[in-house]
Amino acid sequence: KSVANQDLWRVLAELREKHTLTTHWVKAHAGHPENERCDEMAFAEAAKF
Question: Range of 46's domain?
Answer without folding.
Answer: 24-49
